[in-house]
Design goal:
The chain has two domains: about 110 residues, Tetrapyrrole methylase, N-terminal domain (Cobalt-precorrin-4 Transmethylase, domain 1); about 130 residues, Methyltransferase, Cobalt-precorrin-4 Transmethylase, Domain 2. Strand 12 and strand 13 form a beta hairpin. It is α/β, with parallel strands linked by helices. Helix 3 crosses helix 4 and helix 6 packs parallel to helix 7. The radius of gyration is 20 Å and the shape is globular. The chain contains seven helices and 13 strands. The model has no long low-confidence stretch (mean pLDDT about 95). The protein has a five-stranded parallel beta sheet with strand order 3-2-4-1-5, sandwiched between helices. Strands 7-8-11-9-10 form a five-stranded mixed beta sheet, with helices on both faces. The protein has a three-stranded mixed beta sheet with strand order 6-13-12.
């Protein structure tokens, strides 16, 4: 088959945070597939078709993109951040596994991007400098009981925790519940970084202790990084604080 599907990470939102490899993959595509707000980030190009869909239609979107590639098109499936982090690369792999045999013969590639937790971490200092994990608070694809279990165990294990999909209109209470669980397992002084739209014109970064972390400080454009007991905050005169996780685990020296 002459078609090709490339799953592309657009980065956290700012044009300068999109890699040259991702830019080239988008420019070379005959057709773009993706969640409508992500497609809206890209300039329109003559002869290049666009196929927007809702954020709850991942498998259907993957199937449509694979069909287009199977028909001979050079297709780019775009995701915000990195396509392998709570995004479309997994959906494409699942579609290939469960779909028609012709999809298994396609040339499929994944182009990485800067995921939200890395963009937020860069603005805050180095909060991911030691062991960390990422947890999505959305229960669309997994039960909330499992989210709670993972939060509790990650905190007890001493991981810095990046929280994706913290709140939505359909889930207004879950972030507050998550903070309550984390306060039961961590010191109240642990730093929490709220990073909204990191790298974009409407960027907002705030650092508060866990005792003061509230759901009202976040929306769906926010990625949150919750420190561990080893995390440190460096206060600077007239400048934002630096949050970092020491490279050596254990108490400060």
């Amino acid at each position: 088959m002459s078609g090709r599907l490339t799953v592309v990470g657009l980065g956290p939102g700012a044009a300068g945070q999109m890699t040259p490899e991702a830019q080239a993959a988008v420019a070379q595509a005959d057709a773009l597939f993706g969640y409508a707000p992500y497609l809206a980030r890209l300039p329109e190009r003559a002869g290049q078709s666009r196929h927007a869909s809702d954020n709850r239609e991942e498998l259907q979107r993957a199937g449509a993109a694979l069909d287009a590639a199977a028909a001979g098109a050079k297709v780019a499936m775009v995701s915000g951040g990195d396509p392998g982090v709570f995004a479309m690369a997994a959906a494409v792999c699942e579609a290939i596994e469960t779909g028609p045999p012709r999809w298994r013969t396609l040339d499929v590639a994944v182009v990485p991007g800067v995921t939200a937790m890395l963009a937020v971490a860069a603005r805050a200092g180095a909060p991911l400098g030691h062991d960390f994990c990422a947890i999505s608070l959305s229960d669309n694809l997994k039960p909330w009981d499992l989210v709670e279990k993972r939060l509790k165990l990650a905190a007890e294990a001493g991981f810095v925790i990046a929280l994706y999909n913290p709140v939505s209109r359909a889930r207004p209470w879950q972030l507050g519940r998550a903070f309550d669980l984390l306060r039961a397992a961590l010191p109240e002084t642990v730093p929490v970084v709220f990073g909204r739209a990191a790298g974009r014109a409407d960027e907002a970064i705030a650092v508060v202790p866990l005792a003061e972390a509230r759901a009202e400080l976040a929306d769906m454009a926010t990625c949150i990084i919750v420190g561990s007991a080893e995390s440190r905050v460096v206060h600077r005169d007239g400048l934002p604080p630096l949050v970092y996780a020491p490279r050596s685990a254990g108490p400060a020296r």
